[in-house]
From TrEMBL:
SUPFAM superfamilies linked to this entry: Acylphosphatase/BLUF domain-like
One Pfam family here: Acylphosphatase
Enzyme class: hydrolase
InterPro entries per record: Acylphosphatase (IPR020456), Acylphosphatase-like_dom (IPR001792), Acylphosphatase-like_dom_sf (IPR036046), Acylphosphatase_CS (IPR017968)
Gene source species: Vibrio variabilis
Keyword Hydrolase: yes
Enzyme Commission number(s) of this protein: 3.6.1.7
Active site, renumbered: 20, 38
Keywords of this entry: Hydrolase
Family: Belongs to the acylphosphatase family.
Protein name in UniProt: Acylphosphatase
Start and end residues of each Acylphosphatase-like domain: 5-90
């Protein structure tokens, strides 16, 4: 079981709409660890670590996010693996 991490930057109407809460819930559901954090420019940074298949499912989910949000763009980049304890909302 290969563990990896991916960082996503999600742009659109993603702050003030419960995006981080729903992302955290989705991460736990997919057995991922990491965090979701608001950025000063209105984007949300999401770091997820876990199995490749689960990360791919999260990447797909982030393309539309929860119904309360509007995702315009998602940029992803692989990052070095770091074990996180659970999925945090920062």
């Amino acid at each position: 079981m290969v563990q990896k991490c991916e960082k996503f930057t999600v742009s659109g109407l993603v702050q003030g709409v419960g995006f981080r809460y729903h992302t955290s819930h989705q991460g736990v559901k997919l057995s991922l660890s990491g965090y979701a954090m608001n950025l000063n420019n209105g984007d949300v940074e999401v770091v997820v670590c876990g199995e490749e298949g689960s990360i791919a499912q999260m990447a797909e989910w982030l393309q539309h996010g929860p119904k309360t949000s509007r995702v315009d763009k998602v940029v992803s980049e692989p990052i070095a693996y770091k074990p996180f304890n659970g999925f945090k909302i920062l």
